[in-house]
Amino acid sequence: MTPEHYIGAAIVLLIITATGLYSGRRITGAKDFSTGGKKGGVGIVAGTITGTLVGGASTIGTAQLAVVKGFSAWWFTLGAGLGCLVLAFVFTRPLHQAGVSTLSGIFAAQYGKRAGLISTVLMSLGNILTIVAQILSGVALVTSMTNIDPVIAAVATTILMLAYVVFGGVWGTGLVGIVKLLLLGAAVLLCGGIALVEGGGPVAMYEQLPHQDYFNLVARGAGVDLGAGLSLIVGVLTTQTYLQAVISARGVKEGVRGALLSGLVIPPVGVMCIFVGMYVKLHHPEWGILSALPAFVFAYLPPLVAGMILATLLVTLVGTGAGIALGISSMFCRDIYQAYINKDCGDATLLTVSRLGIVVVLGISLLMTAGSMGAMILDCSFIAMGLRGAVAFAPLCCALFFPGRIHRCFVEIGMFAGPLCVVLGNFLMPKGIDPLFYGILASLIAMLAGFLFNRRPQTP
Predict the structure, then answer these.
(1) Whole-model pTM?
(2) Which of 14, 185, 277, 287 could, after both became Cys, cross-link 63 (CB 3.0–4.6 A)?
(3) Averaged pLDDT, groups of 10, the chain, 460 residues long
(4) CA atoms within 13 A on the CB side of 241
C-alpha cells in the first residue's frame, strides 16, 4: 500500500461514514431501526437487498471459484438475482399483507409461538455462516493489502461490520447500500473491462481455457451447480434481511420495484468478477485463488483508483455481514426477547437490545472463523443459504399461500427434518447432488403430511 492507495481508500470510507452517520439521525425508535418505519422507497429497498446480498461471496468469492471453474462460479449472483425476481413478483404482496415484521413472526402467527422460536434458532445458525463467509472475505482482502496477521484482519473486519449497522439499522443498510452499489458497479465494470481487454476478449479466453470447465454453467456437475442456484433462490426468500427490505417499503409497489431492480443488477456483478478470475488463471496462476480479485486490482489499476476499489470491496463484504447480523438481531428481539423475556419492554429498551444482539451475533461469527481461515468463501455461502432454505422455505410458502391448512406439529417436524437431511445428505448420500434437494424434499413431505392430517374427519 502506497500513500496513493490510502488516499483512495480514505475517500471511499469517508463517503460511506458520512452516509452512515446521516442514516443514524433518522433513527428515533426500534421500528425505525428494524423496518425504517415502513417509509422506504425503491432506492432504500434495493439498497438494503443489494447492500447485503452483494458481498464478499459475490465479488472476491466469485473470482476465487472462477479461477478454478469459470462460469460455474456465476451461480451465486445468478441465483441471487433469480431469488430477487421471485421475491418481487410472488412474495412481496403476501408479505405486506401478513402485517408481521419478521419471518419467525409469520411462523408464530400461523403455527404457534414454538414454531417461531424453532425457526429463529435454526435460521440464525445458517445466517451466522453467511457472516463467517464475509469475515473470510475480509481476511483475504485485508491480508492482500497489508502484512497483518489473519486473526487481526478478522477482528478488524468484524469491528467494521459493527460500526456499519449498529447505529443506522435498516436506514444504514439501505442508504449505505445505495452508495455502495454505485461504487461497486463502477469497480467491477472497470476490473472486468480491463481483464477482457488485456485477455483479448471472451473469444480469446474461450480458446485458451478448457471449454468444458470454464464456459460451462454446470462444470461441477448438474446436481451440484443447479443445487447451488436453488440454494440461493430459497436462501433469498428465507433470509430475514431481504424480507425485511420489502417489508420496510412504504407500499407493495415500492417493494416489488426495489426487489426487481436488485434482481436485474446483481448477476452482471458476478460476470465481471468471473472474467477477472479467468484472466488470473491464464496470466497469473502464481497468485493462487484466495486473493485473485484484490491482487488483480493491485497489479492493473493506478494506486489512487486501486485504493478506492479495495475500500469498496471492503465495505461490500462488511455491509453484507452487518445486514445479516441486523436480521438475526431483529428476529431475536421481536420473537424471543419481546415474546418470552420482557413482554412489556419499551421502545428504547427494544432498540438497546437490538444493538446488543448485533454485537453478540458478530462476536459468535468471529469465533467461528478461527478454524476456517483457508476455506472457500462460496462454499460457506452456499451451505448457509441451503440451511436457511431447508428450515423455512416450505413453511413460509404454506403460511403465505395456504394459511391455516397445515397442522403445526408437522411444520415443526419439517423445520427439524429439512436441515438434518441437508447435513446427513452431505455425508451419507452420493456426491454430485446438492444435499439441499434432500432437505427441501423432507420439509415438503412434512408439509404434505400436515395438510392431510388437517383434512382428516374430526371426532365429535
Answers:
(1) 0.80
(2) 277
(3) 88 78 56 51 83 80 88 91 93 84 83 87 82 84 81 86 61 64 87 92 90 87 85 86 82 89 92 93 82 87 90 81 79 77 75 81 84 60 79 90 90 92 80 81 93 69
(4) 39
In angstroms, rounded to a whole number, what is the distance separating the alpha carbons of residues 452 and 460? 19
Burial of residue 456 (number of CB atoms within 10 Å: 0-12, 13-18, 19+)? exposed
| Phi, psi (deg, nearest 5) at residue 372 | -130, 30
CB-neighbour burial class of residue 434 (10 A; exposed 0-12, middle 13-18, buried 19+): buried
- Answer yes or no: are the C-beta atoms of 165 and 329 closer than 8 Å: no
What residues have CB less than 8 Å from 379, skipping those under 6 apart?
none
* Contact call for residues 59 and 184 (beta carbons, < 8 A): yes
Residues 362 and 367: their CA atoms lie apart, in Å, by: 9
In residues, how long is the chain? 460
φ/ψ of residue 429, rounded to 5: -90, 160
φ/ψ (deg, to 5) at 40? -70, 140
